Amino acid sequence: MNAYRDTARVLPVDRAMDKPPLEESLGGAALPKAATEASTIALFGLFGCGNLGNDGSLEAMIGFLRGARPNAKLYCVCTDPDVIGRTMGIEAIPMRWSRGLRRRSVFSRVLLWGPLKFIDFAKAAQFISRADVMLIPGTGILDDFGERAYGMPLDILVWCLAARLMGTRLAFVCIGAGPIRHRISRWLMTFSARLAHYRSYRDAMSKEFMANNAGFETTGDPVYPDIAFKLPAPAARTVNRADDRLTIGVGVMSYYGWYGFADGGQQIFDRYIEKLSRFVVHVLDSGHAVRLLTGEIGDRIAVDALLANVRAIRPGLSATAIVAEPSASLHEVMDQMADTDIVVATRFHNIVCALKMGKPTISLAYSKKNDVLMGQMGLEDYCQHVEHFDVTKLIGQLDSLVLRRDDHARKIRDQVDKLQQELMRQDEILLSTML
User: Fold this and answer.
1) Picking from 28-32, 85-89, 256-260, 351-355, which range would have the lowest pLDDT averaged per residue?
2) How far apart are CA 63 and CA 67, in angstroms?
3) 3-class DSSP state of 397
4) Beta strands in 105-203 (DSSP E)
5) Closest CA to 383 of 402, 359, 366
6) Which of 42, 49, 108, 214 can pair with 134 through a Cys bridge, CB separation 3.0 to 4.6 Å?
7) Distance, CA of 380 to CA of 370 (rounded, Å)
8) What is the pLDDT of residue 241?
């Protein structure tokens, strides 16, 4: 289990202007108490793109800020401003104005890339100058899963550098870091983190990755739980059953490998769905029910593929044997999980939601971040890798978890309470130093 630290690493501020000079920010001294409360706060991240975990992290931060700084003006720099404006009720602006570049010819992209990126930076500087603080709340913001170097890694640097040059305080809060497999992406992302006045990580693994790859001192950087643990959970529901029939929640993901655009992605997806389908058939044949869960809008592709596979194997399957409802938020995911007894999932924030609901959980992860969180909950024996998991072993893990589910559920609930207390400690630090 990770031992969380109470002290936050924050970098120096020019008290005369309450603005941190760029050259001092690389020195590693401590930031004193903010001279004034932040009146305008920008929130930056990959929000509005259909990833429910990312949007849940944003929602958790907005909820905290509205309670702690009710008079502050909030706005979000994100992927889809229309979605965030509608769902979160705050002003939102695009993180990139050169979005249409991909739709142009190769010649036009090469010719226009430089000027359009300059426009992106100029626009970023214009908008971020309005903010006292720019917060990057949660998410695996510092990994390059599914990203090319000139995509999100470059966008992060553009906005972080603009923030520092415009005198805006910069904080990475409970972020995930690593792996960053592409060399250029690693440089872009780690340099962005280097510019921050405050950095906290959602697990020790992320902190260790930055210590080994970013080239700066991380000793004082704290580790706190994932910010989505701050979201309110729906009330637990008691399901009355006359027998031992359980409902197993199965979180599916449209997973095509670490870089989904790389060769072999479809084969990875097909193998994943084929093996998961065999597991689901076993669960149904054992007399249990299945509820499919998602964590991103695009996961509907995986749901449809899995349902087609299962029905091909069991053509006479009852229409009510598998429940598959869409989800538009982590709240809806947790509400669906309230009807389950055990959850098997791939996405990190499906795991977070299951644990938040006190559900014994099995992880089929594409990253070690799942394993770290599962280990904190005493569930390290219930982890496999999404690309290499063994169905027979998965069935054995399920059987073991069924026998011990009450004991595990109790331990999970106790640990989640502790995680929420740790997050409250960080709230106090942010309010006294950054906000």
Assistant:
1) 28-32
2) 6
3) helix
4) 133-137, 169-175, 198-201
5) 366
6) 42
7) 10
8) 61
Report the length, in residues, of the chain: 435
Cβ neighbours of 429 (radius 10 Å)? 18
- Report residue 322 as tokens: 């598998």
The mean pLDDT value for 279-308 works out to 97
CB atoms within 10 A of CB 268: 18
Measured in degrees and rounded to the nearest 5, phi and psi for residue 75 equal -145, 160
Q: Locate all alpha helices (DSSP H) within 129-232, ordered by sequence.
A: 152-165, 183-194, 204-213
Q: How far apart are CA 30 and CA 11, in angstroms?
A: 5
Please tell me whether residue 373 adopts helix, strand or coil conformation: helix
194: alpha, beta or left? (left if phi > 0; alpha if psi -120 to 50): alpha
Cβ atoms of 384 and 394 within 8 Å: the answer is yes
Q: CA-to-CA distance for 74 and 281, rounded, in angstroms?
A: 48
Kindly report whether the global pTM for this prediction surpasses the value 0.85. Answer: yes
Closest to 252 in 3D by CA, of 316, 202, 297, 315: 297
Residue 297's Cβ-side half-sphere holds a number of Cα atoms within 13 Å equal to: 9
Map tokens 């053509």 to a residue: 315
What DSSP letter does each residue of 268-329 carry, written as one string?
Answer: HHHHHHHHHHHHHHHHHHTT-EEEEE-SBGGGHHHHHHHHHHHHHH-TT--TTSEEE---SS
